[in-house]
Description:
Oligomer: single chain
Largest sheet: 2 strands, antiparallel
Low-confidence stretches: none
Shape: globular
Helix content: over 70%
Order of helices and strands: HHEEHHHHHHH
Number of strands: 2
Amino acid sequence: MNSTNKTTAAKSLRLFGNTRVLVISALFIAMSIVLGKVLAFNIGTSIRISFENLPLLMSGIFFGPFIGAAVGIGADIIGCLIVGYAINPVITLGAASIGFVSGLMPILLSKVPPLPKTALSVLSAHIAGSMIIKSIGMFIYFNTPIQVLLLRIPLYIGIGILEFYIIHLLLKNKAFSEQLERVKKK
């Protein structure tokens, strides 16, 4: 990481002291729980179609890797406690990695135009968190068959495309982007 990237990462870490970011992060956690536990479509016991990762991606892309990871951890643990699921540390790590990777990629790709930067952020976060880490957690803890886990690849490609489009539209909106920058300032 070059010095500009380190400065950007340090700025994202400082957002932990920002009350506005804290409130929005809490809203992202609540949004993830509702999208993942209430408004999800379950197919059997192993496949769930939901947009629970959208707020994790948004928190990472908007506020950086550390806020993204914190939102991922909070959403997974609180969501499990509310619904009564056992907390699976590997799946919690997967949720954290979705937020972290989606926030890290814009820092690493600072010279890349916004559209591919957002697309690569969403894609890499889903590959790391949804397709690899969470699938490992499902395999280890729930003995989910590999054939079922492989279905997560096209599922998250489709969901990721929709999530990318939503985030891209938000970032493209000038009024939204101005408010986002205002929130990040103390």
